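Changelog-adjacent note: as of this version, every example in the card shows the full chain rather than a window. The one below runs 223 residues end to end.
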Amino acid sequence: MTMPKEDTKTTRALQGLENNSSSVRLQAALAVGTTPDPGFIRKLVERCAVEPEFYVREMLTWALTRHTAAMTVPVLLDEVRSDRAQARSQALHTLSKIGDRQAWPAITPALLSDADDEVARSAWRAAVVLVPEGEEYALALVLATQLGRGERETQLSLSRALIALGAVMLPALGAATTDPDPRVRAHAIATERLWRDPDAGFEFAIEEAKRIVALGGAGDEGR
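Full-length structure tokens:
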């Protein structure tokens, strides 16, 4: 008995997603996204959790966005509770790309302060996309608790998330410029300066902020 052509094509695509060659996996994800099929959703999500190549993960995310949100979002919401950090990170990243605000309740304070930097960064990006109107200030307060965290890339991600919220985040940022922790103060001052002068660049802003903190100053200086 021969398999229908559609079944053969589906089987080939599913096998391709697990091929040893990253280029084959990329092509398989492209094929799945080009011809969306609800039967692929769970497999795409599962693959996101283990795929080692960034550009393949991006294609997997794109393939998921090609399916209806009503079918993808529930699966992704299960994934944000995974024990695997990459699974949480990629699910959050995909939710930010889909932009369905029904996913907002899943963006918990625990995810926004996740011990894994990649998960936290994905949660910050998802949060500013999904936050309902009127809840931006509350989100800014939670994000501000992460100021001073991590290395430059992580700090820049947080600064961008706060800035994306608009002026509503300024009170939370202002409070952080007087925090006892010099790393928090410097990050807050740098973010404030980037808000006021986006062309300054994060490197310049953070080095200038460190100088101000070392001299005992606060974010109000130089305005």
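Structural remarks: The mean pLDDT is 90.
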